[in-house]
Design goal:
Blueprint (H helix, E strand, L loop, with lengths): L21 H16 L5 H9 L4 H14 L5 H4 L3 H8 L9 H23 L10 H15 L14 H18 L18 H8 L15 H4 L10 E6 L4 E6 L11 E3 L4 E7 L9 E7 L2 E9 L4 E7 L2 E7 L10 E8 L4
Parallel strand pairs: 1-7
Antiparallel strand pairs: 1-4, 2-3, 2-5, 5-6, 7-8, 8-9
Amino acid sequence: MQENQENKPQLEEPDICEIKSESERNAVWNMIFYQRWGFFPTNKLQQLYEGFSQDPAFEDSLSKMLIKLKTIDDKLIQAITLEQLLKVNKGIHLKSKLNILLVGIIKNINYLIAREVVKTLIGGISKAGKSKAIIAIETITLKLAAKSGPIAFKVFGSPGVGLASKIVEYSVNTIAQQFGIQDKRLLNPQGLIFAVPQLFEQFLNYPIGLKPESGKNTIFEVVRQHFTIKENWVFYETVGIQNICFGSYPEHDQIYWHTYDRKYPKSESKGDYFSAGQLQNESFQVSIWCNDHKLCHIKEVYYRDLLRVTQIEDEILVLHCKGGLNLGAGSTEIIYRNKFLVD
């Protein structure tokens, strides 16, 4: 009986706010950002992600994956060639009925690369099994992959196993070179090099979201190709909590008499956004209330940041996930954590 792979993306994704480890929480946020925008918020992680497809091991790994993929009894798969996959990977549109399938396969290969690069940074599988962070990263990837169709989704079955291991090897070796480590035996796919959480930040080279006038233009080379100048919003989410209000203020407001905008989300709100009318590369301020009690005030939020308010047991937690224009791009910060407020 054939396994129903399409059901896998329906797995429940763990709440990022429930992940206690800062480095693991950061990794999940990077994967969420990739899910929404198709690239990572930090230049270093984006380079690591893009670098594998330019590595000599990529073509060989792709060839071996295609051999395994062709063990599936499907006429379309049997017609695919390595040359076609390599051309589509370079962005070349093929005038062939296979083009849609080829694009789907390449998309899923890229999702696989993104997943393994991020997992490597936080150690892959823990001794006790899969952590909440790993489950979240894998679930996000499966949801993305399912959109490419049932045939392309098979990349995430046995055909992609060897490719995944090569991605991990590439990531570990690249990071090892970053820190001048010559003996690769000191590293392994479980990412022991990242036992010290600060090393994750060192690799990603925070602060990364510097403004153009600083002269250290990092993430802008990546992100300016992906948005229009009119976009300036911050996303907000609520999970299992009611009577939350988000209020925005302009960057230089110091009196706070009137909010520029107010949002009153439902208890399960996702994908909503707001701003303070600022320019795209400028920040604005946000206050968050629950039952008319101010939980916190955040002095700087930027376009593509995420503010998430969650109730975990008897506590309220406010998490600030920082996007590519923020000085802490790719990181997360717990802004508020306290007992639940009763009206």
